[in-house]
Amino acid sequence: MHRVTVMTRVGCHACEHAEEDVARICGELGVEWTTADVDSDPEWRAEYGDRVPVILVDDEEHGYWKVEEDRLRAALRS
Length: 78
Prior knowledge:
The mean pLDDT is 97. The protein has helices at 13-29, 42-48, 69-77; strands at residues 3-8, 32-37, 54-57, 60-64. Strands 2-1-3-4 form a 4-stranded mixed beta sheet, covered by helices on one side. It has 3 helices and 4 strands. It has one domain (3-54, 68-76): 3-Layer(aba) Sandwich (Glutaredoxin), CATH 3.40.30.10.
């Protein structure tokens, strides 16, 4: 089973859209997902801070700034 994490930041409008997309897609496919605030960890902020939202699939970076729906669905079906 895959696991999706959306790296977000408080007040990030693009992050809110990404969370909505991921919630819908993961809900349809029965995949668990969560969010993590990049500003809660200095390493995350250094790694992802300029590119939020960042979508991780199984702890590997899958994409950033927006959800590429077809690509995410394909990754979660594999």
